[in-house]
Amino acid sequence: MTDRHLQRLLDAAVPFALPLRRTFRDVDVREGMLIEGPAGWGEFAPFADYSPVAASRWLASAIEAAFEGWPEAVRAAVEVNAIIPAVPIEQAESLVREAVARGCRTIKIKVGGSPDLDIARVAMVREVLDETFGSGAGRIRLDANAQWQLDEAIAMLERCASYGLEYAEQPCASLDDLAVVRRETGVPIAVDEGIRTSDDPSSLRLADVADIAIIKPATLGGVRSSLDLITALGLPVVVSGAMDSSVGLGTALALAGALPELPLASGLGTGALLADDLVVTPVVPFAGQIPVGRIEPDAQALSRARARVVDDTQWRSRLTAAWQAGATDRMRDALGIG
């Protein structure tokens, strides 16, 4: 028998499917569910490789967004980076020029394929940034998504260092390897997968491993849980989305808006990857920033995205498994069922 709390979520959930402009990390269509509650809409969209326990944190974030609401914002807008997928150099240059035209001064480049092509894209991004903002004024971030082996990471970062790197995000999977890369190359290191895939992120000790923590609140239980985690980690942070729809991006914007200090550009530029969205106008940077605020779906856009879902059984099953694996008293209380 389905318990009343779970049934409340299933009744409030609407599956969606959004095509991407181009394949990104082997994904052509971004899928998930929106959940409507008294505070607004939350997004439950764990990636395919997320276990039910990991997905339960995403569900907690969606419940917070829909049923609890978020802490008060202390800023009206946040600076964001643009993201450049691992595409051929001509496409990459077009995307970079589009991004700088929107005022983005920080560019994150996905790397981990052909070393020579990766280097060529880094060199091109530096050239465009210097041409647009002045020599050395723009910032470059690399993201290898933990694909490099230790020796490969050291070699690649030594080759890229001359282009001026703000940091390299998760060049290796192992935290021990990250510490070695940081020590050997002198390039600042950011941790992403090492945090969001940890069984207990708050127990991590990263002072000798990394310079920056990538915080994706949808994957970490929501805004309040992320604020607690940031305190526990004690590192500067970059708030990032997780290939969200524009509605789901509201959670990351709420965290970025609530932080007392936010010196680094947030990773919230993935709206540019979507060919369709759940809103009339996708949330993308203007003058290098995105306003902080709740984002509501457009009824026609949501209906269009719902119609692309041939069978919602998979997502109803994933939500059920996530609830059964990790429902907490706080999540039950938020749903307002005695």
How would you portray this structure in words?
By secondary structure, the chain is of the alpha/beta class. It contains twelve helices and twelve strands. It has two domains: 103 residues, Enolase-like, N-terminal domain (Enolase-like, domain 1, 2-Layer Sandwich); 215 residues, TIM Barrel (Alpha-Beta Barrel), CATH 3.20.20. Strands 5-6-7-8-9-10-11 form a seven-stranded parallel beta sheet. A three-stranded antiparallel beta sheet has the order 1-2-3. A two-stranded antiparallel ribbon has the order 4-12. Helix 8 links the parallel strand 10 and strand 11. It starts with a helix and ends with a helix. The mean pLDDT is 95.
